[in-house]
Amino acid sequence: MRFLVRILINALAVWVAGLLLPGIAITETAGDVTGDPTFDLVLAYLFIGLVFGLVNALIRPVVKFLSLPLTILTLGLFTIIINAAMLMLTSWLSSFTPVELVVDSFFWTGILASIIISLVSLVAGSLTGTRK
Fold first, then answer.
1. 46 and 34 in contact (C-beta within 8 Å)?
2. Cα separation of 71 and 90, whole Å?
3. Residue 13 pLDDT class (50, 70, 90 cuts)
4. Are 90 and 108 in contact (CB under 8 A)?
5. To 10 degrees, what angle do helices 2-20 and 37-58 make?
6. Three-state SS across the chain?
7. Residue of 12, 26, 76, 85 with fewest CB within 10 Å of its CB?
């Protein structure tokens, strides 16, 4: 149940980042799946939330461990770069699926999106009690 809530939170965070930043978009190459474009878009965001959650659960801990000296040296600010890299990895992985997360650039769009996604995830996770 907790994993499903994290998928919903990730989807919400990516949706908010997409609303605030023009460089983030979700494209669907599958076309019309259910007949309702709004429901198709919600499913697309849920799928991207799933991929983003899997990337954060499997790859992010290894990257954080390997970059620990640099994170300590920058007083934790390198974590923003790690989050942006996980977003770009999600974008790359989703390019092989019918639903694709498009991020224009790493430097501004990716970093600003990672900050927005982190803040939305923090607030939503605190409200739902999944953040411990």
1. no
2. 22
3. very high
4. no
5. 110
6. CHHHHHHHHHHHHHHHHHHHCCCEEEEECCCCCCCCHHHHHHHHHHHHHHHHHHHHHHCHHHHHHHCHHHHHHCCCCHHHHHHHHHHHHHHHHHCCCCEEEEECCHHHHHHHHHHHHHHHHHHHHHHHCCCC
7. 76
Q: For the purposes of burial, counting CB atoms within 10 Å of the CB of 129, is it exposed (0-12), middle (13-18) or buried (19 or more)? A: exposed
Residue 93 tokens, joined: 């992985």
Q: Which of 72, 112, 3 is nearest to 103 (CA)?
A: 112
Structure tokens at 20: 């605030």
Q: What confidence category does residue 124 fall into, taking pLDDT thresholds of 50, 70 and 90?
A: very high
Give the pLDDT confidence of 67-101 residue by residue, as tens digits.
Answer: 999 999 999 999 999 999 999 999 999 999 989 99
Contact criterion met (CB below 8 Å) for 52 and 10: yes
Phi and psi dihedrals of 113, rounded to 5?
A: -65, -40
